[in-house]
Amino acid sequence: MAANNSTQFDSYSERKAFDETKAGVKGLVDAQITEIPRIFHDPLGTLDNKQPNVSASDFAVPIIDFAGLNMSRESVVEKIKDAAEKWGFFQVINHGIPLAVLKEIKDGVRRFHEEDLEVKKSYFSRDFTKKFVYHSNFNLYSSSTINWRDTFGTYMDPNPPKPEELPEACRDGVMEYSKHVMSLGGLLFELLSEALGLSSEMLKSKGCMKGVLMLSHYYPPCPQPDLTLGTSKHSDNSFITILLQDQIGGLQVLHQDSWVDVSPLPGALVINIGDFLQLITNDKFISVQHRVLANEAGPRISVASFLSTSMHPNLTVYGPMKELLSEENPPKYRDFTIPEYSAGYLKKGVNDESHLSYFKI
């Protein structure tokens, strides 16, 4: 018992020392380390299948072209329905967000994370209700291991930050990209509503558009990528997530017990179903587990926009949608509020077990 306490104390001390540098994982890379600290080591056995279990020809995340929306909306809706039911993930092309906007947000994320450390330190915090927060690993002190990743986050809806509350390095990109994300989010909820056989406004009327949390990740090159992960296996604390990723790669989705690469596609956005949408659709749409591999090629840049109020006040009580229930399809989950769900999700941290299981009837 004493040995275990000592190990735990050592781990905490190392995490605290890492945290207090406020330099994040990038600070370790800047120090030119050749071996990663043990607090980043993933538990033995979880990295034995880092390569995809299947080839791209066997499984590929669906790609849906929105260019045909005006001509054949029903066809697009059918493809979204199929992807949401079978994969929980799909990529969208011709989504309407200009390539210049996508480039500017990625460049802005990189500029901030490669900014002078003293500038970044002024934004460092673990109070995730702040307008803009920079940190490394939101679950640094609760997770069994920590990931090779730095992040800044900002709530863009409701009550978005004023431009002057954002760092100059990423200000323009964040403000402009977030406007497009909210517009695309509205369209996606319309299409997903129609995919459920409901009116196009149904999901929006349930409050699915109430919040947008944007997390901008920076995955520095890792000297020992086989020992750690960029992001551990998890599902998302959202209704849907809109992800912009660069061309480095590393995102994988768990499909039919196999890890499948979500291969970067220029100009595309990755859309995935979150826990909340699986719950209110009573398992009609699925929120699947996914992860990001560490890599030597980095830095990898990604911007994840979670359509969810997360920890912000929201008194709406959610449960399986009555419009989808019947004697043959009774509710599988109890009612919940998003802050209640989020508090448990954050306490649990990113790990193998979906938080949805705690709400099953």
Describe this structure in words.
- With 361 residues, this protein is an alpha+beta fold.
- It has a single domain (2-359), classed as Jelly Rolls.
- Helix content is 30%, strand content 19%.
- The chain has helices spanning 2-21, 24-30, 73-86, 99-113, 117-121, 171-195, 202-205, 275-280, 338-348; strands at residues 63-65, 89-93, 132-135, 150-157, 212-219, 229-234, 240-245, 251-255, 258-261, 269-273, 290-293, 300-307, 317-318, 336-337.
- Strands 1-2-10-7-12-5-4-3 form an eight-stranded mixed sheet.
- The longest helix has 25 residues, at 171-195.
- The protein is globular and about 60 Å long.
- The two termini are 37 Å apart.
- 40% of the residues are buried.
- The model is unreliable at 1-8 (pLDDT under 50).
The number of distinct structural domains comes to 1
The N- and C-terminal alpha carbons lie at a distance of 37 Å
Strand order of the largest sheet: 1-2-10-7-12-5-4-3
CATH class category: Mainly Beta
How large is the share of residues in beta strands?
15-25%
Give me the count of strands: 14
Largest sheet: 8 strands, mixed
Rg result? 20 Å
- Taken from the alpha-carbon principal axes, the silhouette is globular
Number of helices: 9
- CATH architecture classification: Sandwich
* Percent of residues in helices: 25-40%
Looking at the chains present, what oligomeric state does this protein adopt? single chain
User: How would you name the CATH homologous superfamily?
Assistant: B-lactam Antibiotic, Isopenicillin N Synthase, Chain
* Elements, N to C (H/E): HHEHEHHEEHHEEEEEEHEEEEH
GO molecular function: dioxygenase activity; metal ion binding
Keywords: Iron, Metal-binding, Oxidoreductase
Protein name: Fe2OG dioxygenase domain-containing protein
Domain Fe2OG dioxygenase: 210-309
